[in-house]
Amino acid sequence: xxxxxxxxxxxxxxxxxxxxxxxxxxxxxxxxxxxxxxxxxxxxxxxxxxxxxxxxxxxxxxxxxxxxxxxxxxxxxxxxxxxxxxxxxxxxxxxxxxxxxxxxxxxxxxxxxxxxxxxxxxxxxxxxxxxxxxxxxxxxxxxxxxxxxxxxxxxxxxxxxxxxxxxxxxxxxxxxxxxxxxxxxxxxxxxxxxxxxx
Length: 198
Ligand SMILES: CCCCCCCCCCCC(=O)SCCNC(=O)CCNC(=O)[C@H](O)C(C)(C)COP(=O)(O)OP(=O)(O)OC[C@H]1O[C@@H](n2cnc3c(N)ncnc32)[C@H](O)[C@@H]1OP(=O)(O)O
What we know:
198 residues, 4 helices, binds dodecyl-COA, 34% helix, alpha+beta, seven-stranded antiparallel sheet
């Protein structure tokens, strides 16, 4: 089935609403009866949506980030618009770099009140990988090294950045970091290898 712009927008809105449900379900402190009632409603919604399903999540076009990059820093690329499990980011491109701002909520907790290190790694993989994709290069992560320099808080704005460090044949090295109040909490360096394919 063709994915029209209207369907894309509807899928995007549905996923955004699902994220709201995920957070609300995780932190709700309602009475038992109300939680059970909500569970029944959600189970019914899942049945309704599942009556006709694609085998995979809608894929954003490969050249989407490159198109956003050429449109300039005011045209961000929305990451994980169609997958509620992904951490949604608006990635802005500026020259050879990328930036995003995120205020992680309770869903992303690892140590108490802090961002889970696995989510930090995922965020960095995305910031580096999408920046490479925005250069029009088809590449996958071969290695990703992280340094957790200090705790990364929840519920506070974080600045995410990435830039290309080196290109040598098929090998692209990119680096990135997470900042809180101007101080780096996480640094990452990744090796990406260009691959064939569509
Ligand atoms: C259509 C899709 C669109 C892609 C659209 C974009 C998708 C976004 C992706 C988001 C990021 C991800 O999550 S990606 C998903 C996670 N990553 C993966 O699943 C990748 C799994 N690994 C692989 O498929 C493979 O190992 C590759 C492609 C990475 C490399 O295999 P290969 O193509 O056979 O290349 P190979 O000859 O081994 O290596 C090439 C050069 O890289 C070096 N090299 C290779 N791996 C490493 C490594 N880990 N550490 C150091 N160096 C390495 C080699 O020494 C060599 O250097 P030299 O001798 O030339 O000097």
